[in-house]
Specification:
InterPro entries: NA-bd_OB-fold, Ribos_protein_bS1-like, Ribosomal_bS1, Ribosomal_protein_S1-like, S1_domain
GO biological process, one term: translation
Number of strands: 30
Strand order of the largest sheet: 3-2-1-4-5
CATH class of the largest domain: Mainly Beta
Function: Binds mRNA; thus facilitating recognition of the initiation point. It is needed to translate mRNA with a short Shine-Dalgarno (SD) purine-rich sequence.
CATH topology of the largest domain: OB fold (Dihydrolipoamide Acetyltransferase, E2P)
Keywords: Repeat, Ribonucleoprotein, Ribosomal protein, RNA-binding
Shape: rod-shaped
GO molecular function: mRNA binding; structural constituent of ribosome
CATH architecture of the largest domain: Beta Barrel
Number of domains: 6
């Protein structure tokens, strides 16, 4: 009895484990998918076998194994302890993770599920959230190969009270990638030629993997010729030979080039394309200011809009040439330092103004269509797609230009005479009034100021009379009808009368003859006095004129 009492007292004195703590137990049997575990203190509990398995694996548990479990309750309705292996693992994992988080150490885990915005990761008992942006350094379309795979993670954030853990796989990859980049970059030198694999293609170039580190191959460094898009010459996965152009030790950025491994075609441009030589090229690009023409791969020249056509001014280059069109161009200038070639398209054809001047010297009659009517004249379309201008003053001999131009309309076919061709200024002056010659010049060609001519009266007016000489009309004012004031009466003349007059002026500009009967009479009087005597000698004027008249008979 004394021994029994001692044992009973000893059992009362032993501390019973606290509920909510982790205790050690021994597997005493496995049945119906559960493990029966003796946690001591005369307590046994049951735990589902799946709580002993890692995600995606079978539980490896045998009778006699010692395990740690979480004591939730010392006794349930069946008199069994309520225990959990999963909660024990979680508590254990949280302790371990908190230490790793504090020391910024990596932790091992496995992705086992997908949730909104990312994935769930088992960290040996604790479940963490892996954001989609933290899976890899680049977006991952298919995370299947990563599921269930044990791998390292970096703990970014954790809150034990709320049970939140956020981890990153990307941080691990970037760290290892940075180490790898540093090692690869240390073995690279500027100017070195290396092989790489095209990993990605963008609008501005391609990223090439040099064995753990990416370099940028810019589109302008792919070829000496113009490359509109990198996909023209590269494909993803292709192995290419590139040259290291520049290495930025601070940012670890590497610039690559392909064209640098080829001969520069510009070294031979001046020799292959001498000035003023004509070559056939292909239009590669068209802009508002001109068109680029490829003379050979890697060598392009610009045909400025002003050098595209002799006749088409202020027109978009796209209306003269088209992309991929083959054209003949002349080399106008080469600047090898700036890698520029100036080309001319119009220079491969003869200047149409020169051609016109040779075929149509001054005085030649031409025919054309009225292209435009302006306030200062007509523009006439001529051969060679050029225009000539008829100034207002060259429309008519008899009408004012402003009046004469009213008779013309756009698209009318007209004839004119070439009066001047200025090839340098690209101007052609035409005259319509010159057709048939200059009637005024022909009419007055034999007369001059002071000449006596016979005219015909064509009209009687109050202020004088209208007369015609060789088809050219003139007007004699009342004051010039006679030396005698009493005879200065227009009504004493009749239409059709022939009258001798003296020419007082010849005005080629206004195309008018100044005529006077009075001036003729005065001139005749002076001549008679000179020949037949002077009134000072006692002879009367009547005697002198009478003698002159008799002499005339």
């Amino acid at each position: 009895m004394e021994d029994f009492e001692a044992l009973l007292n000893e059992s009362f004195e032993m501390d019973t484990p606290d509920e909510g703590s982790v205790v050690k137990g021994k597997v005493i049997s496995i049945e119906a998918g559960q493990a029966i575990i003796d946690v001591g203190y005369k307590m046994e509990g049951r735990v589902d076998l799946k709580e002993f398995a890692n995600p995606g694996e079978e539980a490896e548990l045998a009778v006699g194994d010692e395990v740690e479990v979480y004591l939730r309750s010392a006794e349930n309705a069946k008199g069994e302890a309520v225990i959990s292996r999963e909660m024990a693992r979680r508590e254990e994992a949280w302790d371990r993770l908190e230490k790793a988080y504090a020391s910024e150490e990596r932790v091992e885990g496995a992705i086992f599920g997908r949730v909104k915005g990312g994935f769930t990761v088992d960290l040996g008992g604790a479940v963490a959230f892996l954001p989609g942006s933290q899976v890899d350094v680049r977006p991952v379309r298919d995370a299947g190969p990563l599921m269930g795979l044990k791998q390292p993670f970096q703990v970014l954030k954790m809150d034990r009270r709320r049970g939140n853990i956020v981890v990153s796989r990307r941080a691990i990859l970037e760290e290892s990638r940075a180490e790898q980049r540093a090692e690869v970059i240390a073995n690279l030198t500027e100017g070195q030629a290396v092989d790489g694999v095209v990993k990605n293609i963008t609008e501005y170039g391609a990223f090439v993997d040099l064995g753990g580190v990416d370099g940028l191959l810019h589109v302008t460094d792919m070829a000496w010729r113009r490359v509109n898009h990198p996909s023209e010459i590269l494909t993803i996965g292709e192995t290419v030979k590139v040259q290291v152009i520049k290495i930025n030790k601070e940012t670890h950025r590497i610039s690559l080039g392909m064209k640098q491994l080829q001969d520069d075609p510009w070294d031979l441009v001046a020799a292959k394309f001498p000035l003023e030589t004509v070559h056939t090229g292909r239009v590669t690009n068209i802009t508002d200011y001109g068109a680029f023409v490829e003379l050979e791969p890697g060598v392009e020249g610009l045909v400025h809009v002003s050098e595209m056509s002799w006749t088409k001014k202020n027109i978009h280059p796209g209306k003269i040439v088209s992309t991929s069109q083959e054209v003949e161009v002349m080399v106008l200038d080469i600047d090898s330092s700036k890698r520029r070639v100036s080309l001319g398209l119009k220079q491969t054809q003869r200047n149409p103004w020169e051609v016109f001047a040779e075929a149509n010297p001054e005085g030649t009659e031409v025919e054309g269509e009225v292209k435009n009517i302006t306030e200062f004249g007509l523009f006439i379309g001529l051969e060679g797609d050029i225009d000539g201008m008829v100034h207002l003053s060259d429309l008519s001999w008899d009408e004012r230009g402003e009046d004469a131009i009213q008779s013309y309309h756009k698209n009318d076919m007209v004839q004119a005479v070439v009066s001047e061709v200025d090839v340098e200024k690209e101007r052609i002056s035409l005259s319509i009034k010159a057709l048939g010659g200059d009637k005024f010049a022909e009419a007055v060609g034999g007369v001059k100021r002071g000449s006596i001519v016979t005219v015909e009266v064509t009209a009687i007016e109050e202020g004088g009379i209208e007369v015609a000489y060789e088809g050219m009309k003139s007007f004699i004012r009342r004051s010039d009808l006679s030396r005698d004031r009493a005879e200065q009466r227009p009504e004493r003349f009749n239409v059709g009368d022939k009258v001798d007059v003296r020419i007082t002026s010849v005005d080629s500009k206004t195309r008018r003859l100044g005529l006077s009967i009075k001036a003729r009479e005065i001139a005749e009087e002076k001549e008679a006095v000179a020949q037949y005597g002077s009134s000072d000698s006692g002879a009367s004027l009547g005697d002198i004129l009478g003698a002159a008249l008799k002499s005339g008979d």
